[in-house]
């Protein structure tokens, strides 16, 4: 197996490296201290076309693959801060289920907006006990209620977690 980068892959790495050079450590420290989302960085990545790197061309993306997306993420993580990588990760990789399983209408409505930076992609953990250190091999009552549709209607609603402030 050949692990050498192609010329176009090397161009991606160089382009991402140059883009990241516009956002020095002071930028990331300030964002972290103020607990702000790096909107300027996110938009720069979108404007450069990297958010759409693994999205098919018919929806406005580059139509490249996971390898190219991983090269973008690797360079961003190396050059920036964890905040940098976290801010764009879902915009690059999180759309795979939509691309694979979404209707044409949904793809045409949302993918171009994500690629342009107009719309951000996110996810939420809905499991009230997610992240607890007391994990067992058995799913929690909330998970059983969610995953067992025949009993979900008679199950008590899951407990809500206390709201905490997000850092982004």
Q: Describe it for me?
A:
The protein is an all-alpha fold. The protein has two domains: 110 residues, Acyl-CoA dehydrogenase/oxidase, N-terminal domain (Butyryl-Coa Dehydrogenase, subunit A, domain 1); 30 residues, no CATH class. The chain is built from nine helices and no strands. Helix 1 runs parallel beside helix 4. The relative contact order is 0.12.
In total, the number of domains comes to 2
Rg from alpha-carbon coordinates: 19 Å
Mean pLDDT: 81
Order of helices and strands: HHHHHHHHH
Distance between the termini: 40 Å
State the CATH topology of the largest domain: Butyryl-Coa Dehydrogenase, subunit A, domain 1
Oligomeric status: single chain
Broad shape? globular
Number of strands: 0
What class would the helix/strand composition place it in? mainly alpha
Runs with pLDDT <50, length 5+? Answer: 143-168
CATH architecture of the largest domain: Orthogonal Bundle
Note the main sheet: none
**How helix-rich are the residues, as a percent range?**
40-55%
The top level CATH class name of the largest domain: Mainly Alpha
- Percentage of β-strand residues: under 5%
Fourth-level CATH superfamily of the largest domain:
Acyl-CoA dehydrogenase/oxidase, N-terminal domain
Number of helices: 9
